[in-house]
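Bug #77: duplicate submission created two jobs. Keeping one. Sequence:
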Amino acid sequence: MRNRCRTIGFILFWISIGMLLMLLITNKVIGIIVIGLLMIAGYNLYFCNRF
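Kept job's structure:
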């Protein structure tokens, strides 16, 4: 249970950092590019194959 709480806290922390970053980026096109790159990076990190 402790690992789940820590994971949820970690996710919520980075969501708030992302929201703060989007407040600072005024150009919508750059914001969409950043969102796409971070989604691809997050997907690759979440589903990485570790042996």
